[in-house]
Amino acid sequence: MQVVVPYAARDPKSRLADVLDADERRAFARAMRADVVDAVRAAGGTPTLLTTAPPESSEDPALDGVAVAVDDRPLTDAVDDALPEGPGETVAVVMADLALATPESLTRLFETTGDVAIAPGRGGGTNALVVRHPDFRVDYHGASYRDHRRIAADASLSVGVVDSMRLATDVDEPVDFAEVLLHGERRARDWLADAGFEVVVREGRVGVRRSE
Amino acid sequence: MQVVVPYAARDPKSRLADVLDADERRAFARAMRADVVDAVRAAGGTPTLLTTAPPESSEDPALDGVAVAVDDRPLTDAVDDALPEGPGETVAVVMADLALATPESLTRLFETTGDVAIAPGRGGGTNALVVRHPDFRVDYHGASYRDHRRIAADASLSVGVVDSMRLATDVDEPVDFAEVLLHGERRARDWLADAGFEVVVREGRVGVRRSE
């Protein structure tokens, strides 16, 4: 399956700015991206990195052999152009910040039936998609899960939903680090641990702390 | 399968006090509980409500025919007493605030192999369990997912994990209402909608608003 992995190269993960500086955010975003690309390949997918700026050649050995498409337009426009243009085509879209994605969870997504298969994100987002019909288009603004269901319904397309905590967890804010530390298995988890983050329990709730 | 559904009858859902008064929180907690009990039954389970106080007989027709056990001790002690006491016994534990639980997601849990099968909650909790070995015990304080894995490992028990956004979503805080409104299908969703809550998008993020 062709799998587009969108990545925002400029100022990635800006909502982590309170806890990570710009270089750290870039390194952490790359670690998540590498984990996603690996998981896509292990699930039998062929990843294409869809990035807003060309990667530096020395940037990331994890991208060796990965096709790169550069498109500096907003996410919705860039992804729309990558979707199926004719019958019989299938394209998946998997966000680069799904640090908990595993080959198993992606395989479940790829095997979910429907003209469109959706992995909802927490908070109404769309973390991953499989599009099997040229009449579907994306709209990533706002509550995109609801919008994508509406777009599919308006085009009389069937929708499958994959129920996965791993695919529902995109890493946008420091609170999400707890999920990566608890359930991550690869680079992104190791990066956070090496950077000194650990899970702490305060007043019965789980958070993260960074050692000095 | 025997399925224990723990329910805190006194001041339920206290972290919703900013948006719901005490009567509303009780009604909403009962709506979630009824949805969970229904889903357990539809998944082939036999639910027992494990509650800290006896329900009033007029309280909830959704509990008709459901066994009720009253135990006012802390959750860990009460659940521990309900777990298997000998080989060959299986007991599941499904929290009463899993408003997105469906027969499908619970069936996946019940079919997950291992001496212990765990549905992790967001934030390191344990939202549901299947226990098939008498050496396992629970500890719901703090980051219980990690603790339950450790307890299983210390007793040389195998652990399966079910990857479900629906089972990972317990409803503790107002932000969780968005998940119920977006993905809920039954009483809890209807209760929130009838109470005037709706999904709103503010600055690109999804939240909820209550109409006046």
UniProtKB/TrEMBL annotation, chains A, B:
Keywords: GTP-binding, Nucleotide-binding, Nucleotidyltransferase, Transferase. Pfam families: CofC (PF01983). InterPro entries: CofC (IPR002835), Nucleotide-diphossugar_trans (IPR029044). Pathway: Cofactor biosynthesis; coenzyme F420 biosynthesis. PANTHER family: 2-PHOSPHO-L-LACTATE GUANYLYLTRANSFERASE. Homodimer. Belongs to the CofC family. This is 2-phospho-L-lactate guanylyltransferase. It comes from Halogeometricum salsisoli.
